[in-house]
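New to this. Please check this fold:
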Amino acid sequence: MAKKITAKSTQPAKRGTGYQHLVTAIARLNEQIVGRVATFANQGLVLRNWLFGAHIVEFQQHGTDRAKYGERLLESLADDLARRQMKGLGVIVLGRCRQLFLTYPQIGKAIPSTVWTELAVPLQIPSTPWTKSPTGGKSSETAAPTPLDPEVVIHLSWSKLLELIRIDDPWQRAFYENECLRSHWSVRQLQRQIGSLLYERTGLSTNKKAVVERARKQEPRESIADLLRDPYILEFTGLAELPSYSEDEMESALLDHLQKFLLELGQGFCFEGRQFRMTEGRRHHRVDLVFYHRILRCHVLIDLKIRSFKPEDAGQMNFYVNWFKANMMQPGDNPPVGILLCSDRDGAEVEFATAGMDNKLFVSRYLKSLPSAEQLKAFLEKDRAEIKALTKGKR
């Protein structure tokens, strides 16, 4: 007798326990794959920078025309690489690549043999890490801790290695290496513990274990998202640094409208970037909007604060302007100018930042082409009110 097929057996499965298991499995799989992608990208960045450093050291030690460049080697190299559209390889970063090679020579053992055979210039790997002696020379006589396994080193992000290679004492560096790996610190957490002298405090304490354990409990574990948002990883992979990383809903909407407003003024504004990143030493800064003004022939930086003005805001904006003056000005450009906008429930404030520019020049030339403070205030107050009304209507 044939088995009776009921209507129930032909219907799609309901979203019960089985369906939830499917959702969970896909979510976990996605997390694992994204985690691997982030890890591979970081390892590639570390290996690349180590090889850059190796080539620089090799050239300095054995290059036949090194005397031609002398102390300006890194400056010349940074300029030529920039002309080839290689981003993020300024003088400071190239110096850090060299330091990475000298501090962690064992990383070379993690590089696949196929890469070694393809290198244009043979490289010599130092047998021991380079460390500074108290007099500033190379110290090879003092005892040093056992170097980390190369496969372990490349699991430290480039941002963390930037912090570690700044530590001259090999024992102190080994302490932070171990804590980073054991506690999965983010780069900010590593910076905080180095800044709070955890190593020194541990050495002075009679209960060293308690000091370290307390530090471990204070710091949350690094997430995959932390690594994916690392500016160096984004730059290396060519992924965009999304404005949503640092903008809330109101700020994002205001910046969208402000960007459109300035471009529609018809006064020479050419949009260049949003949440533009500036790297100074070990710290990253971002300015909300960057334009190039074709009439003034200068960059115009705009920073928006969804709160009342604070005196330190002006100093921060002047820092941005000075950074652009030092790093972004091209021959024929005029000095950049900054516009600081603060908007809260009591109204809007506008401040211009010129970083020491002659006031007569600013008034006679710049202010004629830039929107006035009154125009910007009126725009901000009107736009903020409209956004708030629209938000309320949606709720």
In short: The chain has 18 helices and five strands. The first helix runs from residue 7 to 10.
